[in-house]
Amino acid sequence: MRKFTLTRIILFMCVIVTGVTACKKDDPATLIPPPLPDQSFVEEFDTVASAYHRGWMPINNSSPRGYSLWSQGGGPQPYFAPYSSKGSYAGFIACDALVTEADAAVASNWLISPPVWMKNGDKIVFYTRAVLFLDGSFSQDYGNNLEVCINRKNDGTNVGAAVDPRSPGFDYAADRGDFELIHSINPPTYSNADDWFYYRISTDDPAAYDPKAYPANWTRFEITLAGFSKPHKGRFAFRYYTLDAGYTGNGSAVGIDSVAFVSKQ
Question: Is there a domain that residue 19 lies in?
Fold first, then answer.
């Protein structure tokens, strides 16, 4: 009788211990992943080659491609003074409309960040401005467009194929590859009558000033990320995207400086 009672007690204790163990294993608090390390960084582009070494990647998929690329300060002689520099008189990155070799075609020149963990509330902060060329008594830029995109599908660099939106083969969903547009500076309007993409023109003529044109002076842009169901390792990118661009078409050149990715804490 005493043996039977002791056995029942031992079994009962095992059930309790097993139940407690199971409860601890299924505790939702134990399923919460640890917080991500701070992903914040700043890229000054004081040396473009060093930026590429840190994981930045340029891809020119203009149609047709020209000889111009993202470069230090825009060439041997920088277009203008950098916004911020820590040792270089040409401490910014730039590209021009000659990334396409045609007179008027698709300029699509990508500058892609290194992989970074992104989540809701993170910010992309950067400075940009356009190049103005002398045209009569005043200078203007002939219209430029810069897109900010993110890849929330993976951490790759698939940017698709740049196709003229007027082409029967144009596919909006595939135009940016795995990237999606989150902000556009000075997007164009299309004129059916002229069959031409028009951009707002930046100028130093006070009478023709347009606040919605691409800025002619270094200007700060801040974009807050949203739409993530959970943190994702991806990339963000800048796309110099100007239609009807080239030797006789739209576009001058733009510079980018002091790019910051700011993790929400």
Answer: no
Measured CA to CA in angstroms, residue 46 lies from 49, 71, 91, 137 at distances of 9, 11, 4, 33
Q: How far apart are CA 130 and CA 193, in angstroms?
A: 28
Give me the number of domains the chain comprises.
1
Provide CB contacts within 8 A for 213, sequence distance 6+: 141, 143, 186, 199, 200, 201, 202, 203
pLDDT class for 24, splitting at 50, 70, 90?
Answer: very low
Tens digit of each residue's pLDDT (9 = 90 or more) over 133-157:
998 899 999 999 999 999 999 999 9
Q: Which two tokens stand for residue 92?
A: 């910014």
Residue 261 backbone dihedrals phi, psi, to 5 degrees: -105, 120
Q: How far apart are CA 255 and CA 93, in angstroms?
A: 6
- Give Cα 180 distance to the centre of its chain: 9
Report DSSP letters for 147-200, one per residue: EEEEE-S-S---------TTSTT--GGGTTTT-EEEEEES--EEETTTTEEE-P
Cα–Cα distance between 90 and 151 in angstroms, integer? 29
CATH number of the structural domain spanning residue 52: 2.60.120.200
* Residue found by looking up tokens 């075609």 in the block: 105
193 is a domain residue: yes
| Backbone angles phi and psi of 16, in degrees to 5 | -65, -45
Please give the distance of CA 93 from its chain centroid, rounded to a whole number: 14
Report whether pLDDT(18) > 80: no
Count helices and strands (H / E) in the chain. 2, 16
Q: List the domain range (segments joined by +) for residue 141.
A: 39-262
Q: What are phi and psi of 106, to 5 degrees?
A: -95, 115
